[in-house]
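Per your request, structure below.
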């Protein structure tokens, strides 16, 4: 007979004697070590198990990453959580409809528009939004950071200081509720008075803003017009509990990163208002706190995030919103293929690599489906374990994943109910 403490056993027999998460919701499936497995970033954060609510899902194509995310959202909605999804492949429509919402499908020359320069009420600094007031404080900063990321994603280089200034002046010249079209038109055709207000006598705004204006012009007058070039369509505007932005029409466009930035900015703006109301109640309360507060909690999903993470501008933009997750009562979920999407997004030590590593460092929950053997080394680095400890990963069957939750590891078989199968099925066309 061998005797040991439970702490020692947990180390010696990782999945057989694991420390329970003790989370009452939401059920994901079966813990292969026995018993059910449930996970909720808000409850676990409230209980002090997690210090950040973000989730990264990794796995080869067809292993069940999107199916997990869809059913997870479906189950979270039952607890009153709000759901926002950036859906590059257009596969979240059935989920949205099952939750009573129509997905927002964007396409060039389409009829539905969203304005990426919309702001959450909370960021406007004024009760009830901005109206016609000039842009101040947080709202201005959010819009400038969006425009900077868009400029960089479309020009494929960092905007020069004069270009940043031109963007800033164009934005300020557009008043309290600008649209992307107005900013671009102002960039390409500045008013002589715009530059004078900065006090910089020698500024040649028209020349300085020309390159960035011409690149951004594609989104509003060129081949990508019809999605982000105007005010938000009436049927989309207003508070909603379920928002899915479908970008499948432009999934193969080389401008996808810029388009995803626009859609992400807008989704965060419209979910941000409600989320900050939820966060105001204190972030470390017990999980039993009122349902009203929970109702404002939002899960924000970027599926196929790997497609945009190699773009520094997009990575930086996403990273900054992940950092704000706790303050805004948001849990971010990013879906990628491989750890090396993240760890080799750029040369070692480059900004790309640091951004991607940071994204992982900022997600304390990592869900890992089957990976090729060549991925084990970068993955071990991400998960903080040895290659030997995860040697079984290439052989995991569909639906089974390794969950790393704040340093603890679980092998979980994701179970689907009959009601969920039609929502998650992406095999039909095969
Ligand atoms: N836990 C599961 N049990 C049964 N079938 C599943 C499970 N997870 C995924 N599937 C099926 O596998 C297919 C591919 O899953 P999907 O989540 O779309 O893959 P990906 O990892 O590429 O996002 C889907 O049609 C889905 O119905
Ligand atoms: Mg998928």
């Amino acid at each position: 007979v061998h005797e040991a403490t439970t702490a020692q056993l947990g180390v010696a027999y990782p999945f057989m004697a694991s420390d329970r998460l003790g989370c009452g919701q939401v059920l994901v499936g079966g813990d292969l070590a026995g018993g059910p497995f449930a996970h909720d970033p808000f409850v676990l954060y409230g209980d002090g198990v997690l210090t950040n609510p973000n989730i990264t899902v990794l796995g080869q194509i067809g292993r069940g990453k999107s199916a997990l995310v869809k059913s997870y959202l479906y189950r979270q909605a039952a607890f009153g959580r709000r759901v926002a999804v950036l859906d590059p492949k257009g596969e979240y429509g059935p989920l949205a409809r099952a939750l009573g919402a129509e997905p927002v499908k964007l396409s060039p020359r389409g009829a539905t528009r969203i304005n990426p320069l919309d702001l959450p009420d909370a960021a406007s600094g004024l009760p009830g939004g901005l109206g016609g007031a000039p842009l101040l404080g947080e709202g201005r900063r959010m819009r400038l950071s969006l425009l900077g990321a868009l400029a960089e994603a479309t020009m494929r280089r960092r905007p020069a200081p004069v270009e940043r200034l031109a963007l800033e002046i164009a934005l300020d010249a557009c008043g309290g509720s600008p649209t992307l079209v107005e900013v671009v038109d102002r960039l390409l055709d500045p008013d002589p008075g715009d530059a004078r207000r900065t006090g910089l006598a020698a500024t040649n705004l028209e020349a300085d803003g020309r390159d960035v204006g011409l690149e951004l012009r594609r989104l509003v007058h060129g081949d990508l017009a019809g999605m982000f070039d105007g005010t938000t369509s009436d049927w989309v505007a207003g508070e909603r509990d379920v928002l899915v932005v479908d970008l499948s029409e432009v999934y193969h466009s080389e401008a996808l990163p810029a388009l995803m930035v626009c859609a992400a900015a807008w989704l965060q703006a419209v979910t941000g208002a409600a989320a900050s109301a939820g966060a105001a109640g204190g972030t470390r309360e017990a999980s039993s706190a009122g349902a009203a507060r929970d109702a404002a909690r939002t899960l924000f999903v970027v599926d196929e995030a790997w497609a945009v993470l190699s773009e520094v501008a997009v990575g930086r933009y996403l990273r900054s919103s992940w950092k704000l997750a706790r303050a805004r009562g948001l849990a971010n979920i990013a879906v990628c293929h491989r750890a090396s999407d993240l760890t080799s997004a750029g040369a070692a030590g480059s900004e790309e690599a640091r951004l991607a590593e940071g994204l992982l460092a900022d997600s304390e929950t990592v869900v890992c489906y089957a990976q090729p053997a060549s991925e084990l080394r970068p993955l071990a680095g991400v998960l903080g374990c040895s290659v030997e400890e995860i040697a079984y990963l290439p052989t995991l069957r569909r639906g089974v994943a390794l969950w790393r939750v704040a340093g603890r590891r679980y092998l979980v078989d994701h179970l689907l109910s009959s009601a969920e199968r039609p929502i998650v099925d992406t095999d039909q066309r095969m």
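Residues 124 and 136 are 7 Å apart (CA to CA).

Regards,
D.
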